[in-house]
Structure to design on (396 residues):
């Protein structure tokens, strides 16, 4: 029997990180944890190290690393602690590593995810913001390095499962008419529009079907998540934005569909539990048990579909326009959204301000080509500065 594969989990302390470790722990003969990273939840990172005994853990700063080392030493755990960006890059690209789960939230995940890509790893991509920011450069790096990029986002994982294995020849060449990206509609799908100005962060984070980190929960409530996913789908499957249609499906049982020119529509279904796409990508092209309960169609009984309401969810329209503009527009969209979501979570702006602010930042920032990672970060910084200026004028 072969040795277990070594897996690094970037963002191990988050929702996707913990689900990944749950799947890995079910298959100790197949997978072993090599590296774990955390950011603010250091106690959780320590507990994960004691449970999974990785060779390395990455902490954000020297101070955090010292705290983690002290905890590990007291417990007699031999995990070595690395620091900062270099530490993340090291656990993402070490020669021993077979696969990297990229589950840091937001732009902070771009560099370590790219480090894994450039090292030619099997990269399980949850960190959609990284791909949205740097799309063309990211996909070029995948092609150059020979990395295997597998989508963790449930919709993209579903699409991947519904496409033929040779889809890289082009969606047209394999007979795809369009991709149908499903969306739950989030917690405010039926909230009267005039009440959206009063909704709280706690209400925005109470997703009806999925349990997730706070940033993606707010993105789901505004449907910016679907906008980011539209851009993500365009890069992953080399699709024009017009080929990707959003379908509101409140039950979150169908995770997305592929519509073929002969009229066949293939869908992937499952309970809304991220351990399914995680297990799929981890074992691909094999299948392993994920711990997810079998789908009970009789209990679900019905599946509903609606067109998205762009008046209620302006972020979807704004993101589609950014996808069509291409080049730097998605990076600006992403940066402005990250600032807006933080401000909303901090109680500084109201929910409808999220879309307002993003649209105004996009209007101010010219669309330019992004030829390097430095250019991506420069645009990201400019957009954040414009967003902060907006906050200075409008926030509480
Ligand atoms: P969480 O907020 O639960 O976790 C985020 C992780 O990133 C944590 O480990 C956190 O560390 C770490 N982190 C936060 N900021 C930084 C930083 N500046 N530098 C390094 N690490 C950082 O988010 P989720 O797990 O929900 O989401 C992770 C990614 O996966 C996101 O991109 C999201 O869009 C995507 N995704 C999530 C889904 C879900 O169901 N949750 C579904 C599909 C995609 P700490 O907690 O220690 O501060
Ligand atoms: Mg998703």
């Amino acid at each position: 029997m072969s040795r277990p594969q070594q897996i690094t989990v970037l963002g191990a302390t988050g929702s996707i990180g913990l689900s990944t470790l749950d799947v890995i722990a079910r298959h100790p003969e197949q997978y072993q944890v090599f590296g774990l990273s955390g950011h603010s939840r250091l106690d959780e990172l320590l507990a994960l190290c004691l449970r999974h005994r990785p060779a390395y853990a990455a902490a954000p700063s020297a101070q955090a690393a010292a705290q983690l080392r002290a905890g590990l030493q007291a417990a007699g755990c031999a995990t070595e602690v690395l620091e900062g960006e270099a530490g993340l890059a090291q656990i993402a690209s070490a020669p021993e590593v077979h696969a990297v789960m990229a589950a840091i939230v937001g732009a902070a995940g771009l560099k370590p995810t790219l480090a894994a890509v450039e090292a030619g790893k099997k990269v399980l991509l949850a960190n959609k913001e990284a791909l949205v920011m740097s799309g063309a450069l990211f996909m070029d790096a995948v092609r150059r390095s020979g990395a295997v990029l597998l989508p963790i986002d449930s919709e993209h994982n579903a699409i991947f499962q519904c496409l033929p294995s040779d889809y890289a020849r082009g969606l047209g060449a394999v007979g795809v008419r369009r991709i149908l990206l499903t969306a739950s509609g989030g917690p405010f799908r039926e909230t009267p529009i005039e009440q959206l100005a009063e909704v709280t962060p706690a209400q925005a984070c109470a997703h009806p079907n999925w349990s997730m980190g706070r940033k993606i929960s707010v993105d789901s409530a505004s449907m910016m998540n679907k906008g980011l996913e539209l851009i993500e789908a365009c890069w992953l499957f080399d699709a024009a934005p017009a080929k990707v249609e959003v379908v509101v499906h409140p039950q979150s049982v169908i995770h997305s569909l592929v519509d073929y020119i002969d009229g066949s529509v293939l869908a992937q279904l499952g309970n809304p539990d991220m351990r399914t796409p995680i297990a799929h990508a981890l074992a691909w092209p094999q299948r392993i048990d994920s711990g997810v309960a079998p789908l009970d169609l009789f209990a679900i009984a019905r599946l509903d579909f609606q067109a998205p309401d762009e008046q209620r969810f302006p972020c979807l329209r704004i993101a589609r326009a950014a996808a069509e503009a291409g080049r730097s527009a998605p990076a600006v969209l992403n940066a402005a959204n990250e600032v807006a979501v933080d401000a909303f979570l901090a109680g500084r702006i109201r929910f409808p301000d999220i879309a307002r602010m993003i649209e105004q930042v996009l209007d101010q920032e010219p669309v330019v080509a992004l030829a390097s990672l430095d250019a991506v970060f420069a645009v990201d910084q400019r957009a954040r500065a414009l967003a902060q200026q907006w906050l200075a004028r409008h926030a509480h």
